[in-house]
Amino acid sequence: MDRIEALRAGIESLVLIEVAKAMGHSVSELIELLQLGRHSPVGAVMKGNRLTTEQSERILAFLRLVEAVDDMVRATGQDKAFDAPRWIGDWLASPCPALGGRHPAALTDTLEGFRVLERLLSQMQSGAYA
């Protein structure tokens, strides 16, 4: 319930700066990738406002993708460092054969789209991707 209340209240817009930095992208690029621009979060960041519930849910869904990729890589036993936020940011912006050549970012406008991306990542890990 705490998470739901936090989403309803809106994530602090300054989180966008930290997420974008972790991805190796600008805030503007993050806003474009996650299709957050409907309510002008750039202005919200500049004013220190909170994001809308919808924008907050997308940020949380994105962070779940990062966590899923990080967990997948750790499960392989790889010892070298892996930058999951950067990998996800690059993957979202690249054409994906499993999506008919569309960019995964094209699905970030809905929570169902994020669920499709989570399943796709799971399929990639299991080898069922092709």
Automatic annotation (TrEMBL):
Domain Antitoxin Xre/MbcA/ParS-like toxin-binding, residue spans: 82-127
Pfam families xrefs: Xre_MbcA_ParS_C (PF09722)
InterPro entries: Xre/MbcA/ParS-like_toxin-bd (IPR024467)
Source superkingdom: Bacteria
Name assigned to this protein: MbcA/ParS/Xre antitoxin family protein
